[in-house]
């Protein structure tokens, strides 16, 4: 017991010092010192620790690996001078060092939050979330989901595989499908929660998932495939994956997303496309988002994004949990605010978005709290906390690398639907 407590104290001290070390690193980075030589090895060590610490929470581990994939693109930039985007205005090493610092703060918060290694055993996050609704309500949920999927196939855009200009078709598809393509994944989850017959439930969910995967591939929607994969793991594979299998899945997922990107760009796919399609710069979506992060840092330093702009972003981010984002001007939405000042390839990293809106301290606190919520959900009895964490994890690829407001908006929609369905269940009993 004594040695266990001592080891715990030592571990806490190490990660606390690692987190506090971000303060001098920030000032050294601002002074123009190449602090990435220190940060990159430390981030690798922290990710290795997370692979061990989170081996029993596979979806949380997959989230950290998903984030790590973006971080890896900094290595060819710093060590080999490979440019990360076709855009050049913010191709500045000082700005990319600050992006590296944001990843460092993110990983420091994760490691500090799980000093006591969580061990849920064979406990699934989905356990206890089943909806005890009547059979007619369950059938209605399935029918509604079927109608939404059919609507997407009919009106959700053009098949990029049959288009003469796949990228233009993809852009048009984005406007037609809007958020419905992501919401339908939530409806599929509620089908799973409401169907009592396990064989029928699994069959229906798998059919729906295959349909959405086909829709996403033929419309060029990588944004739908990643959360679909996370959803499938949460429902069917969560306690069946080893660290090795998670790493393999992460690589296969990256290759698959790069393949979809090649389709919509009308380019020939090869494994090297994951990292580069050009001799002078890396042209992959992941690398381009790092340029967007560097641009966010540059716009803050130049004063083009002011303190008042950042306050507006704070207010709108919270408000977007209940108000559709389209109601807000582009200047009050991340990552659109960056595109109002400069050209980027689209998408916005969580680490740069939270830093832009709440600062480095905000990035540390928010990451720490998210990690604590995920751990608590495996031990507490609150269905609503478990539900929030379920959808935070399921949509983590979207809020981490595409659209920050998803982290608040989708869990809130899920809670509302869950409450209403539970209320319908109670009313049906009273009528009976």
Describe this structure in words.
This protein is mainly α. It contains 19 helices and no strands. α17 packs across α19 (406-431). The longest helix has 28 residues, at 350-377. The termini are far apart.
Categorize the overall geometry: globular
Number of helices: 19
N- to C-terminal separation? 56 Å
Class by SSE composition: mainly alpha
Brief rundown of the structure:
This protein is 70% helix and 0% strand.
Which keywords apply here?
432 residues, mainly alpha, disordered C terminus
Write the layout of secondary structure elements.
Blueprint: H1 2-20, H2 22-30, H3 36-53, H4 58-72, H5 74-80, H6 93-113, H7 135-155, H8 166-177, H9 180-194, H10 198-219, H11 222-237, H12 243-264, H13 285-302, H14 307-319, H15 336-339, H16 350-377, H17 383-394, H18 396-401, H19 406-431
Helix pairs in contact: 1-6, 2-6, 3-6, 4-12, 6-13, 6-16, 7-9, 7-10, 9-10, 9-11, 10-11, 11-12, 13-16, 16-17, 17-19
């Amino acid at each position: 017991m004594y040695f266990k407590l001592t080891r715990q104290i030592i571990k806490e001290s190490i990660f606390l010092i690692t987190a506090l070390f971000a303060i001098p690193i920030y000032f050294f980075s601002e002074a123009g010192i190449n602090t990435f030589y220190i940060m990159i090895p430390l981030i690798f060590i922290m990710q290795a620790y997370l692979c061990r610490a989170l081996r029993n929470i596979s979806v949380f581990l997959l989230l950290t690996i998903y984030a790590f994939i973006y971080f890896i693109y900094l290595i060819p930039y710093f060590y080999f001078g490979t440019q990360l985007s076709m855009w050049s205005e913010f191709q500045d090493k000082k700005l990319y060092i600050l992006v590296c610092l944001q990843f460092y703060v993110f990983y420091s918060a994760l490691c500090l939050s799980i000093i006591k290694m969580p061990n849920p055993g064979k406990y699934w996050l989905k356990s206890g979330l089943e909806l005890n609704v009547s059979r007619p309500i369950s059938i209605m949920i399935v029918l509604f989901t079927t109608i939404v999927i059919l609507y997407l196939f009919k009106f959700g855009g053009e098949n990029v595989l049959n288009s003469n200009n796949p990228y233009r078709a993809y852009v048009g598809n984005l406007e037609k499908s809007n958020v419905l393509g992501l919401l339908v994944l939530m409806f599929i989850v509620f089908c799973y929660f409401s169907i009592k017959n396990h064989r029928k439930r699994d069959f229906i969910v798998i059919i729906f998932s295959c349909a959405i995967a086909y829709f996403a591939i033929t419309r060029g929607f990588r944004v739908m495939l990643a959360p679909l994969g996370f959803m499938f793991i949460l429902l069917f594979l969560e306690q069946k994956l080893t660290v090795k299998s998670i790493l393999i899945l992460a690589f296969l997922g990256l290759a698959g997303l790069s393949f979809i990107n090649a389709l919509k760009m009308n380019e020939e796919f090869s494994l090297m496309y994951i990292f580069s399609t050009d001799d002078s710069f890396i042209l992959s979506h992941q690398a381009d988002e790092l340029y967007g992060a560097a641009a966010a840092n540059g716009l803050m330093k130049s004063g083009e994004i002011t303190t008042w702009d950042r306050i507006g972003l704070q207010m709108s981010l919270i408000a977007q949990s209940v108000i559709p984002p389209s109601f807000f001007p582009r200047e009050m939405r991340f990552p659109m605010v960056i595109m109002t000042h400069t050209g980027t390839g689209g998408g916005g990293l969580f680490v740069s978005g939270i830093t832009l809106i709440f600062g480095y301290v905000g990035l540390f606190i928010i990451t720490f709290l998210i990690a604590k919520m995920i751990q608590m959900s495996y031990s507490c009895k609150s269905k609503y906390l478990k539900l929030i964490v379920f959808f935070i994890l399921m949509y983590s690829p979207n809020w981490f690398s595409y659209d920050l407001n998803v982290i608040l908006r989708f869990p809130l929609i899920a809670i509302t639907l869950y409450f209403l369905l539970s209320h319908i269940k109670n009313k049906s009993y009273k009528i009976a």
